[in-house]
Structures are given as C-alpha cells and as structure tokens.
Amino acid sequence: MSKVYVFDHPLIQHKLTYIRDEKTGTKEFRELVEEVAMLMAYEVTRDLPLEEVSVKTPVATATSKVIAGKKLGIVPILRAGLGMVDGILKLIPAAKVGHIGLYRDPETLKPVEYYCKLPSDVEERDLIVTDPMLATGGSAAAAISFLKERGARSIKLMCLIASPEGIETVQKEHEDVDIYVAAIDERLNDHGYIVPGLGDAGDRLFGTK
Ligand code: PRP
Ligand code: URA
Asked: Using CA positions, which residue lies closest to atom 3 of ligand 2?
C-alpha cells in the first residue's frame, strides 16, 4: 500500500486557507498555488540521494554534498496541474516537464487522453505528477496509468486537496505511488466536487468560468 503524506507546515496551511477563500482573485490564487507547490516540493524531494564532493571555500577545502545525479520530471495534469509547475521548478530548475491532458468521455465516463508529451527518457526519471484536486481520483489514476504505459517507473502524486475517495482510488490502482497533499477534505458532493475544497481549480487559476 502506498503512503499518504499530509503537510501540516504552518506556511502551507496558512496559504491554503487563502487559496480556499472564494474572495481570493485569480492573480493571488495563482501566486499562492505556486508558493504552496514550492513548499511541498521541498518535502517531496526529501529522499533525494546525495553524494559527497570537495569544494574549495575561500578558507579551505570542504567535503560537502550535492544531489547525486537523480533525473527528475514534473508532469502536470492539464490544465490545473500547470499551476503547480513553476513553484516546483523554482527549487528544481533542471527538472524536465511533461504534460498529460485528459477528458472524461460523456458516454462511457472513462478518462480519454487527448495530449501527452513526455521527456524521451521518462523511464529513467523520478516523476512528480501534479494536480491541485484529487476528487474522484479518476483523472489522476488514469494519468498515472498512461505514464506507466509509456515506461514511467517512479511516480509521486502531488495535490493540494484530496478527498478520501480520491486517495482510495489511486491507492487501489497504484500501490507504488505515494501521495502528497496539503489537506484531506471531508467528502465529494453530487457533482464530484470536493467539500469544502476550493471550487474549480482550473477556472480559478486561469480566470475562466
Ligand atoms: C479537475 C482537476 C483534476 C480533476 C479532478 O480538472 O484539476 O484534474 O478535475 O477530478 P477527479 O479526481 O474526479 O478526476 P478538470 O477536469 O476540471 O479540468 P481542468 O484542469 O482543465 O479545469
Ligand atoms: N475539480 C476541481 O477543480 N475541483 C473539485 O472540487 C473537483 C474536481
């Protein structure tokens, strides 16, 4: 069974409150999502391996550490996942970015991939899949399956808010994928929205309705 990490850091919780607030406008919403993603990336990358190097300081030679050549990739689920990418890139500027887009077929209700462009060496990379909302879990579970079909072997899922149902779905389908969230909310409503959640993440990020 995969692990679920809920970040209780005060800065993350504080910013999440303003992200939830219906009075928060598009500009501030976008900035806050980026900031929270950056703070979450700090924790998500905690297990990156280090190697020792020598570095000459102005005083002497120090034995110090650098990240041991790990290849990382960020894969936002279009479109709302895009809002988390720049925050992560601030901490990991060399990461490659793939994109995956899904829509739900109105008849079968199954997720259909409409766009996918990934780094060519996807099987060698540790991927962080981003999406602010893990609601029914259908989109994230399908996106992860599509990534695995293309060879991805190491995947973490990073969301702002999850529902218990969404977590259960991803854990059932992908027991190798750990999930990182800022909050787990109460439930889903009849329209598949997270309650209390933050509303429609894509619309709030991009100012659409
Ligand atoms: C939202 C959200 C997730 C999905 C979550 O995207 O960003 O991708 O819904 O719902 P699920 O867990 O029930 O699948 P949406 O489909 O609204 O598209 P958008 O990002 O283009 O707004
Ligand atoms: N997608 C959203 O943007 N918000 C939700 O609460 C559920 C799905």
From this structure: 200
Q: Are 74 and 86 in contact (CB under 8 A)?
A: no
- What ipTM was estimated for this complex? 0.97
- To the question of whether residue 135 is assigned a binding role by annotation, the answer is yes
Q: Is 201 in the pocket of ligand 2 (CB under 6 A)?
A: yes
Q: Are 133 and 161 in contact (CB under 8 A)?
A: yes
Query: Can you tell me which residue has the tokens 């787990």?
Result: 184
pTM of the model: 0.96
Is-contact 31 205, C-beta < 8 A?
A: no
Stated as kind and residue range, the H or E segment containing 21 is none
Amino acid letter, residue 33: V
Tell me, letter by letter, the H, E, C secondary structure of 49-99: CEEEEEEECCCCEEEEEEECCCCEEEEEEECHHHHHHHHHHHHCCCCEECE
Give the span between the Cα atoms of 125 and 121, in whole angstroms. Answer: 7
Q: For the chain, list the strands marked E by DSSP.
A: 4-6, 50-56, 61-67, 72-78, 96-97, 99-104, 111-117, 126-130, 133-134, 154-162, 178-184, 187-188, 194-195
Tens digit of pLDDT for each residue in 106-149?
Answer: 888 788 999 999 999 999 999 999 999 999 999 999 999 999 99
* Cβ 81 vs Cβ 126: under 8 Å: no
Q: Answer yes or no: is 139 a known binding residue.
A: yes
Q: What is d(CA 203, CA 195) in angstroms, rounded to the nearest whole number?
A: 17
Q: Which ligand is nearest to the CA of 208?
A: 1
